[in-house]
Amino acid sequence: MADTVEKEIISIISDVSGFDEEEITPEKNFYKDLEIDSIKAIEITVAIEKKFKISVRDEDVPKIATVKDAVELVNTSLSQGNAVKC
Fold first, then answer.
1. What is the spatial distance between Cα 75 and Cα 69, in angstroms, rounded to a whole number?
2. Which of 25, 69, 79, 83 is deepest in the core (most CB within 10 A)?
3. Which tens digit of pLDDT belongs to each residue from 31-43?
4. pTM for this structure?
């Protein structure tokens, strides 16, 4: 499951940032390495919320600085049952 989550998040980041998926690794920093600004960060967050049917609290968004952070957030949300009821 974790591999699937990571692949999906990398795909989303690739779509928003324009970087190839092969260039995006768990250690990559959104701001320093992938040139993601606050607007793109919001786009990525919304795409992650839709894809995984979770809700990311506004105060958690600035804490997501790397691909690994995003994967951990999604895995934690899914394991805690924080899925959004559709």
1. 10
2. 69
3. 999 999 989 999 9
4. 0.87
How big is the CA angle at 74 (ends 73 and 77), to the nearest 5 degrees? Answer: 85
The pLDDT of residue 61:
84
Lookup result for tokens 């998040």: 9
Contacts 24+ apart (CB under 8 A), 13-21: 13/44, 13/67, 13/70, 15/47, 16/40, 16/43, 16/44, 16/47
CATH architecture for segment(s) 2-79: Orthogonal Bundle (1.10)
Its sign, for the CA torsion 7, 68, 15, 63, is positive
Q: Please count the helices (runs of H) and the strands (runs of E) in the chain.
A: 3, 0
C-beta of residue 73 within 8 angstroms of C-beta of residue 60: yes
**What would the two tokens of residue 44 be?**
């990525």
What pLDDT does 80 receive?
Answer: 84
